[in-house]
Amino acid sequence: MALSRLIARPLLASYFLANGAQDLKDAPALAQQAAPVTEAVVPVVDNATPENVSVPRDPVLWVRASGAIQIAAGLALATGRFPRMSAAVLGVTLIPSTAARHRFWEATDKDQRRDQLTHFVKNAALAGGLLIAAMDTAGKPGVAWRAQHAAHDARREAALVGAKVKARVH
To answer: Where are its TM segments located (predicted)?
Structure first.
């Protein structure tokens, strides 16, 4: 593994480990901030799931679930276990977290607006880092490339076998 990945992944994951721990510790207080987001997300999730699946509506539970997911995915990213998937999962958790905590457009105080905007932009930068990490194949071909080339190789092998069979027949 490249030294840059060895250092960068744990650094990127550190924010999510700390944020996830804070979510678990302060879930009731953070649920007040999360309530407008969970109120918007729950119906969408509810419509996307089968009727027999009950979608929780409690913002405290959503905050705790997000914290647990961030800790698990953060640990995976930091240790290099499933780094692309864990980066993608962290990116998904960042969206509602940012929308709940850093609503700069609602701030009335100039200093509060500036602070919230700073955190919002910081989270956007984290999203960019996660996008790079999620797409990083570490120099190895991705699944799409491998599938495309496997199909090409299979066609080439089939043509070679066909030519050998044809040569033996004649």
So the answer is: none
